[in-house]
Design brief:
There is one protein chain. The chain is an all-alpha fold and about 325 residues long. The protein has one domain: MetI-like fold (Orthogonal Bundle), CATH 1.10.3720. The protein is built from 16 helices and 2 strands. The chain has a two-stranded antiparallel ribbon with strand order 1-2.
Amino acid sequence: MEQNVSTVSPVKKEKSVWFYAARRWQLYIFLIIPVIYILIFAYYPMFGVQIAFKDFVATEGIWGSKWVGLKHFQKFFSSYMLPRIVKNTLTISIYNIATAFPLAIIFALMINTVKNLKFKKTVQTITYIPYFISVVVLVGMIIQIFSPVTGLYGALYRTITGSSNYPQDILGKPSVFIHMFIWSGRWQGLGWSTIVYIAGLSAVDPELHEAAMIDGASRFSRIIHIDLPTIIPTASILLILDFGSIMNVGYEKVYLMQNSLNLSTSEVISTYIYKQMVLSGQNNYSYSAAVGLFNSLINCTLLVVVNTISSKLGEGNSLW
């Protein structure tokens, strides 16, 4: 009696990552320059973070400087400036997110509903142009327009009131600074911030709108139930990134708009670090590094927390 020998097919060996990398080696060559750039300019400078725990002296170098532990952090936490600069930084950042995030989505949805292609492109071009104006030029425009002496604001005041007196300097009012800072930023960056959302809306299947129109859905209903859900994942990622940099208020524009009158609301962590490191005339490099490290730790913590919350609320709406 002949025995039936069962033939077992050999198990396919799973191919390694290196196998697929070797097949597409041309693509990885393109990554060499960006990786080197990140290593040199992003990771290598992190070596210098240790000066936050030392009394850094330039002539002795990083390794030769005396280790002092948390001395500079304790100095910052006991500083009378801590509550003010943290409050100002958070106020500006939250105000910025609260205005920039919804306005960018609304504006993108409005542009997407425009049927006239020529008008649509014109509006996009006009709203994109301010983004390419430098911060120095933008602040110069603000100062020139709202100057009580030589600006448009002062000229209109004297014309309307018929008075020869100059109006109050609104750029020196602490309560006006934050609004001037935020809404000038909205004028400059609103059009540019819609690019990602418009790109996401271009992926919407036109047949969905056609089917909804057949069912009698209004334009507003189609925006709410078709367009908006399409860009929610993108909006979630961008919102997480915004919260991950909530303590980073760029010092250039703040510093240029800052003066002795509005300092109570315009002094933020970035300008405080700059003044301590550059303008103080003292050896405050270690103290400035400690403040900057504290700022980065807060950002990192917020990034992880917001990403965790987002991942629990919606699948796929997180960075990891």
